[in-house]
Amino acid sequence: MGCVLGQHDETGKKEHAIYYLSKKFTDVETRYTMLERTCCALAWTAHRLRQYMLCHTTYLISKIDPIKYIFEKPALTGRIARWQVMLLEYDITYVTQKAIKGSALADYLANQPVDDYKSMQCEFPEENIMVLFEEYDDGKWTLLFDGASNIMGHGIGVVLISPKEKFIPITARLCFDCTNNMAEYEACAMGVLGALESKAKVLEVYGDSAIVINQLNQEWETRDKKLIHYFTYIKELSLEFDKITFHHVPREDNQLVDALATLSSMFKMNQNDEIPSIKMESRDYPAYCHVMEEETDGKPWYHDIKHYLINREYPPGILENEKRNLRWLSASFFVNENILYKRNHDMVLLRCVDVNEAKEILQDIHDGSYGIHMNGHAMSRKILRAGYYWLTLEKDCYNYVKKCYKCQIYADNIHAPPVPLNTLSVP
């Protein structure tokens, strides 16, 4: 018996089609009828490809229909009942085989079965597994280091990574004259000391300085008098570890500590001052979208643009850069009879609306008299075709659809189970 698994996406859904993995029948299974052998092959294939077939619709392409035989057989034997229970969790659709060339690969697999086949125990799979957990190597720490020297000063940066993936950043500014290689050695020494303070016994050191890594690995000879003392000091610290290794990485893979070293080299501070904590976040939308969507001053988001187009006056107290941005932004707007319009890419004029009007438009388009509860992308395109515009149009459409009660209640059910299904009864 052979099986071929394929995937196609013609109707917008991910679907799988199976013919028949290579399986060698046992002595008992060879005495089955042709239809029962096909059913056995289908059950064996579904068991092996379970992780693929659970989340998709599967088309069974075969000469005969084993699904109809299994589910319409009046007298169920032990094996037929077992196959029936196993196939209940899959969405399998039978398709009649038409082209002979489509099954050439499956026929080849059927003629070349494997010899290491073991009998399938499908009643309680993996019954000996009680709990799954992620195992950590408690003794393995990772150290990333880098040094920076520029016209502003010298700085070093270190990141210690614990066995549980906890990142510990360390940075310092060097207030004495040193070369770039000396800064690299200073960073490595500070990181090794930090690892000793964290009671690490196994340490992997990564740096982008080829000369430092190769000298510490004793592949290159250390001849510079300024670096010999650093080399001796780090080697003495290395004796405190059970195992320590040094590895070279490209600069592209060492960006985090490179940023720390550059920051410490350019940031001037007093002797007893501490660098304040820096919080980094990501933004998915331009800054003006977050500012314009809330009309806290009672004016619409397009007030400054409209005022500039009518009176050619800038808002009071703005900078020259903001004036230039306002002129650039106003070039795509047009005022007619005290109504502001936005020129689209195809030169169609779209009426600009404020927050209150935008909420009414969203409600009417999505769930009004002619609303069809469409998704966010389609609703934003329909609003543009209707001739309306505001800055946060597409984002507001997506957020409105997510909060629609009817869309959540009457949406299509997700057929994939939240947890893997297990057979509860044995035929």
Automatic annotation (TrEMBL):
Pfam families: Integrase_H2C2 (PF17921), RT_RNaseH (PF17917), RVT_3 (PF13456). CDD domains: RNase_HI_like. The keyword Nucleotidyltransferase applies. Residues 137-266 form the RNase H type-1 domain. GO terms for molecular function: nucleic acid binding; RNA-directed DNA polymerase activity; RNA-DNA hybrid ribonuclease activity. Keywords: Endonuclease, Hydrolase, Nuclease, Nucleotidyltransferase, RNA-directed DNA polymerase, Transferase. PROSITE patterns: RNASE_H_1 (PS50879). InterPro entries: DNA/RNA_pol_sf, Integrase_H2C2, RNaseH-like_sf, RNaseH_domain, RNaseH_sf, RT_RNaseH. This is Uncharacterized protein LOC101493628. It comes from Cicer arietinum.
